[in-house]
Design goal:
The complex is a heterodimer of chains A (483) and B (205). Chain A is 64% helix and 13% strand. Chain A is of the alpha+beta class and 483 residues long. In chain A, the strands form three sheets. Chain A has a five-stranded mixed β-sheet. Chain A is rod-shaped, with a radius of gyration of 41 Å. Chain B is built from nine helices and five strands. In chain B, strands 2-1-3-4-5 form a five-stranded parallel β-sheet, with helices on both faces. In chain B, helix 4 links the parallel strand 4 and strand 5. The two termini of chain B are 46 Å apart. The chains are: A alpha+beta (483), B alpha/beta (205).
C-alpha cells in the first residue's frame, strides 16, 4: 500500500472522528454553534480526503473528471462552514465578504455540475503519472476552465473574511484566539488556494491535496476549541467557588448584622438576665432564713424552690436564644410556627420595649399554618423590624409609643405585620431596603437590605407601607408550608 | 412595734415581688405589695410611718416619678431598687430624700438593713412630729399674759423686773409663771430655753 493511501485514509478518519465528536457536543448544547460549524468543516475535510484519495486512484481521464466534480461538494460544504465558524467563533467580520464568498462558492458548485466535465477543466485529454511523496500519482492533462476563477475568488473572499474576523477578535482583546484560528485558517486556506491555482492552471504538475491543508487548519481549530472546553470547565469551577464564597460572605454579613442588633440591645439584655438572678438570690436567701427557723415552714421552702427553678429556666431561655443569634449558624430549614419565632424575639426585647416605654399589642390569627424556614435569620428579621420600629417611636411623647403585631393567612401565604405610630417612612418606601440607606446617625444601612435578602431566600416578601394616621407598617410574608 | 414594721413594696416583676415579700416577712415585717406605681397611688392613703421599697424601672409611672408625685413625706422614707441604676439617677433619688438606692440583685442583708434604717428614720420623724404637735397644743393653752411673762423669763429677767416691766404685782408674775410652766409640763428655765425655738417663743426686749 502506498504512503499516500495510508496518509489520506488517516486524514479522512481523523476528520470523521473530530467531526462526530463536535457534532455530539452541538447536539447536547444547541447553542454551541461554533461546534456545529466545526463538525461540518471536519466532516467536509474528511470527505475531501476520501475524494482526493479516489482521484489519486483514477485510471481514465473520464473517471478523474467525474471524481473531481464530486470533490467540489465537500469543498463547498467546508467553505460555507468555515464562514460560519469564523463568524460565530471569532465574531465581527464584514457580512458582505461572507455573503459574497458563500455565493461565489455556490455559483461555482452549480457551474461545476452544469458543465460537461467540471469547473476546473473544459476537457481532460489524458493522465500523466508524476511522483509525489514516494508514489506514482495521476495528474490530468487538459484545457483549464476559466469558470474555476469563481471558485478561486470564493477562496480569496473566505481568506479576507477570516482575516477580517481575526482582526476584530484581536481588537476585542481575544488575541490568542485570533492568532491561532485566524492565522492557521488564513495560512492553510491560502496554501490550498495557491496549490489549486498552480495545479489546475497547469503551471506545476502536482496532485490536489487541499484536504491536507484544510486538515491542518482543522487541527488548529480543534486544538483551540478543546482548550476552550478546558477553559470553560475551569471557569465553571471558579464560578462555583465564587458562588460558594458569596454565600459564605452573605452568612457572615447576616451574622455581623445580628451581632450589631444585639449589641444595640445589650443594656436591656443584661437587665433581662439580671432580673432572674435577682429573683433567684432573694429566694435562695429567703429559703436559708426559713430553714433557720424552728420549725421551718417546708411548704414555703418548696414554693421558694419552685420559683427558683422557674426563674432559672427563664434565664436559660434568654441565654439559649442569645447564643442562637450570636453563633455563625449553618442554614437549617425546618417547619416553624411564625408566632413562636416572634415570641422568641419579643422575649429578648421585653426589657428594651419597657425601657423605651413602647406598648405592644398583639392581634394574632388563631391556627396560623407553619412555614418552612431557618429560625435564626427569621428571628433576625423580626428583631430588626422591632428595633427599627422602636427607633421610629423614639420621638413620640411617652404614652403614644404604640406597636401592633398582627398576623393572618390568605392564599397559602402567612403574613406578619408590624405597625408603629412613629415618624413614618421616606417618600419612596422601597429605598429603605437598599444597601447603605439609613436614616439613623451612625447607622450602616445594611439591616433592612439583609432582611430582604433573608426573606427572599425563603421565597417570601418584605415591604413597607405608610399608615394613613401616621407611622408605618412592615409586612413579612412567607409561603405557608404544606406538610 | 407596728409603727416600726410596715413596708410597702412596689415592683412589676411578680417573681421578685414574691421573693422580696418572703424575705421581708421572715424579718417580721408587715409587707403590702403593689405591681405598679398607679396601683400604689390608688391605695392611698396608707398608714404611716412605713417604708416604701420602690423599683425604679416600672412600666408607666416609674419609681422616680412616683417619688416626685408623693412629694416630701418624712414618714414614708423610700428605699429604691434598680436593675440598671446609674449614678445620676441615684443622685437624683437621694437628693429627693431617698434613704437608699440598691441595685439588683440585692443582698438580703443590705435590703433588710436599708429597710430597717428607713423605718427607724420614719419612726423618729413621726415621734418628733408627734412631740411638736403636743407642744403646739400646750402652747395654745397659754393666756396672752402667761406667754408675755414667759418671754420675759426667757430674756433672763427676775420676777421683780418683769412685774415692773408689765406694771403688775410681783406675786401675780409668780402665779402666771407657775401656771405657764405647769401647762407646758416644764420643770426648769433651762428646759424652757431648750424648747423655746420649737415653741416659737422669743425673748422679750
Amino acid at each position: 500500500m502506498n504512503p499516500l493511501t495510508v496518509l489520506w485514509s488517516m486524514l479522512a478518519g481523523a476528520g470523521l472522528v473530530s467531526g462526530a465528536v463536535h457534532a455530539l457536543v452541538w447536539l447536547r448544547s444547541r447553542s454551541a454553534r461554533a461546534s456545529l460549524c466545526f463538525a461540518l468543516i471536519a466532516l467536509g475535510v474528511s470527505a475531501m480526503a476520501a475524494l482526493e484519495l479516489w482521484m489519486l486512484h483514477s485510471t481514465t481521464p473520464v473517471q478523474y473528471g467525474e471524481r473531481l466534480r464530486w470533490f467540489h461538494l465537500p469543498v463547498w460544504c467546508t467553505v460555507l462552514a468555515l464562514l460560519g465558524f469564523a463568524r460565530t467563533y471569532l465574531g465581527g467580520g464584514r457580512s458582505w465578504l461572507a455573503w459574497s464568498a458563500g455565493l461565489a462558492r455556490t455559483l461555482s458548485l452549480a457551474l461545476n455540475f452544469l458543465h460537461p466535465v467540471n469547473t476546473n477543466y473544459r476537457s481532460i485529454e489524458g493522465l500523466r503519472a508524476v511522483r509525489f511523496l514516494g508514489a506514482e500519482v495521476p495528474v490530468p492533462i487538459g484545457e483549464p476552465n476559466p469558470a474555476m476563477l469563481i471558485g478561486q475568488l470564493s477562496l480569496v473572499l473566505l481568506l479576507a473574511f477570516v482575516l477580517d474576523c481575526a482582526r476584530s477578535a484581536w481588537t476585542r482583546g481575544e488575541r490568542r484566539r485570533a492568532l491561532v484560528v485566524g492565522g492557521s485558517v488564513a495560512f492553510f486556506v491560502g496554501a490550498a488556494l495557491l496549490q489549486a491555482i498552480l495545479a489546475f492552471w497547469g503551471l506545476v504538475d502536482v496532485p490536489i491535496t487541499s484536504s491536507l491543508f484544510f486538515g491542518a487548519s482543522v487541527a488548529a481549530m480543534g486544538f483551540e476549541l478543546s482548550s476552550d472546553l478546558l477553559r470553560s470547565a475551569t471557569l465553571a469551577r471558579e464560578l462555583q467557588q465564587r458562588a460558594d464564597e458569596t454565600a459564605r460572605q452573605r452568612l457572615e454579613l447576616a451574622h455581623l448584622a445580628r451581632v450589631a442588633s444585639l449589641s444595640e440591645l445589650s443594656g436591656s439584655l443584661a437587665h433581662e438576665l439580671n432580673q432572674p438572678l435577682a429573683i433567684i438570690l432573694a429566694n435562695a436567701q429567703a429559703a436559708q432564713r426559713q430553714l433557720e427557723r424552728e420549725p421551718p415552714d417546708l411548704d414555703e421552702v418548696r414554693a421558694i424552690l419552685a420559683d427558683i427553678v422557674a426563674e432559672d429556666r427563664r434565664a436559660g431561655d434568654v441565654i439559649r436564644r442569645l447564643r442562637g443569634l450570636l453563633k455563625r449558624g449553618e442554614p437549617e430549614r425546618r417547619l416553624l410556627a411564625l408566632h413562636e419565632v416572634a415570641e422568641g424575639v419579643l422575649t429578648l426585647m421585653r426589657s428594651e420595649l419597657l425601657g423605651r416605654g413602647v406598648e405592644l399589642e398583639r392581634r394574632l390569627a388563631p391556627d396560623l399554618p407553619p412555614v418552612l424556614g431557618d429560625r435564626i435569620p427569621l428571628e433576625q428579621v423580626l428583631l430588626n423590624l422591632v428595633l427599627n420600629a422602636c427607633d421610629a417611636l423614639a420621638a413620640n411623647p411617652p404614652g403614644t409609643r404604640r406597636l401592633q403585631l398582627t398576623s393572618h393567612c390568605a392564599d397559602g401565604r402567612v403574613r406578619l405585620s408590624l405597625a408603629d405610630s412613629g415618624c413614618g417612612l421616606p417618600a419612596d418606601p422601597a429605598r429603605i431596603f437598599e444597601p447603605f440607606f439609613t436614616t439613623k446617625p451612625g447607622g450602616l444601612g445594611m439591616g433592612l437590605s439583609i432582611c430582604r435578602t433573608i426573606v427572599h431566600a425563603h421565597g417570601g416578601r418584605l415591604w413597607a407601607e405608610p399608615v394613613p394616621s401616621g407611622g408605618s407598617v412592615f409586612h413579612l410574608e412567607l409561603p405557608a408550608a404544606h406538610p | 412595734m407596728t409603727a416600726l414594721s410596715r413596708v410597702y413594696l412596689v415592683d412589676d416583676a411578680p417573681g421578685l415581688r414574691r421573693a422580696l415579700q418572703r424575705l421581708l416577712e421572715l424579718e417580721g415585717l408587715e409587707v403590702s405589695a403593689f405591681a405598679s406605681a398607679e396601683e400604689f397611688l390608688a391605695a392611698l392613703p396608707l398608714e404611716e410611718p412605713a417604708c416604701l421599697v420602690l423599683d425604679v424601672d416600672l412600666p408607666g409611672l416609674d419609681g422616680l416619678a412616683l417619688q416626685e408625685r408623693l412629694g416630701a413625706r418624712p414618714t414614708l422614707p423610700i428605699v429604691f431598687l434598680t436593675g440598671k441604676g446609674d449614678i445620676p439617677m441615684s443622685v437624683r433619688a437621694m437628693k429627693a430624700g431617698a434613704v437608699d438606692f440598691l441595685t439588683k440583685p440585692v443582698e438580703a442583708e443590705a435590703l433588710v438593713g436599708a429597710v430597717r434604717a428607713a423605718l427607724a428614720r420614719g419612726a423618729a420623724r413621726a415621734a418628733e412630729e408627734r412631740a411638736r404637735a403636743e407642744l403646739g397644743a400646750r402652747l395654745a393653752e397659754l393666756t396672752p399674759r402667761e406667754r408675755e411673762v414667759l418671754e420675759h423669763v426667757l430674756a433672763g429677767r427676775l420676777n421683780k423686773q418683769i412685774a415692773a416691766a408689765l406694771g403688775i404685782g410681783e406675786h401675780t408674775v409668780k402665779v402666771h409663771r407657775g401656771r405657764a410652766m405647769e401647762k407646758l409640763a416644764l420643770d426648769s428655765v433651762a428646759e424652757l430655753a431648750r424648747l423655746a425655738d420649737r415653741l416659737g417663743l422669743e425673748p422679750a426686749r
